[in-house]
Task: structure prediction
Amino acid sequence: MATPAKRPTIRQIAEETDLSVTAVSYALRGERMSAATIERVQAKAAELGYVADPVARALRGGRTGTVGLLVGSLADFWQQTLAHAIQRELRSHGLHTLLADADGDPDEELVLAQRLAAQRVDGLIVAPVGPAGGSWVEIAAHLPTVTVAGQLAGAEVVGEVAFDQTTGVGEVLRHLHALGHERIAVLSWAVGASPDRPSERAVREQAAILGLQCEIVPCAYSLDGSRPLALEVLSREDRPTAIFCLSDSIAYGVLHGCRELGLRVPEDISIVGFDDHPLSRLVDPPLTSVNWSVDRAARSAVGFLVDHLAGQADERRIVIAPTLAVRASSGPVT
Result:
C-alpha cells in the first residue's frame, strides 16, 4: 500500500521562502507583512498544496472558519431550503458549515447547540424550535448567535431575522373568511413544544376579530407525519371547510389525505400552507401559501454574523413581510 503524502506545513513554507514560521503565519492570514511578502507566501502555499488546519488554528486562539447551523427539523421541506440557502451564503463568505437537526425537539436543540459550541465554531445560526432556557442565555453570551424565524428569550443575540407572522396569519384568515369559510382547522407543528409562538397566538387573535372557529391541532412536521392526522380531521362529521397548515410540508400530507378519501380540493375543502416551498406550485392543485423569501432570510442571517465577526455590526434585527400567493387549493365554500 502506498504511503500517503505528508500534508504541507507552515514550517515547510517558511523553509521554502526563507522566512520565519511567525512571518509565514501572518502572511497566510494577510496580516502585518508587506503586500509583496503576502503574495509570495500565498503563492508558495498554493504551489505546495497547503491547506490551513482549522482545529489547530482554533487551538491557537484564532477562528475555525466554521459556523454552526441548527435547524428545527430537516423533515420539513422549508427548513431544508433554508439550510441550503444559508450554507450557500456562508460559502460565498469563505465559511464552512456544521449542520445539526433538532428533529422538532427543543431539548435536543439545546444539546446540539452546546455540542456545536464545544466544536469551536465561530458563530451559530439557529431556527429555534421551542422556548429558551437558561443554557441558551449562556451559549449566546459566549458564542455569537443569530436567530431565524424564532426568538431565544433573554439571550443576547447578535442578529435576529424575524418574520411578520401576525400579518401572514391575518392575510390567510382574511382570505378564507372572504371565501365564506367559518370553521377552520389549523395544523401546527409547534403548538405542543411552544404554544405561545407568534403564529399560533396570531391565529387566536385574528380568529376572534373575524368571528372564525379556528381549532389549533398539534401535528408532525413532515408529509408522512401529517397524513394520519389529516385523515382523522377530514373524516369528522363536522369536518372543517378549510385547513390552514403552518408548514407546506403538513399541507402536502393533507392533500394526500384528501385524495385517499376522495375529497375534491377546493370544492370539498380548501387548503392553505405557510411557507410557499417551490413544490407548492407543482402539487395538484397548486397550493395557496405564504411566502417568506428564504433567500433574503439567509442573506440577512449570514450578514448579521459576518458583520459581527468583522466588528462592523450595526443593524441587528430585520422583519421580513409576507406575501400571500393565492392558487387553486383555496376556493369558496360550496
Observations:
- Residues 91 and 97 are 8 Å apart (CA to CA).
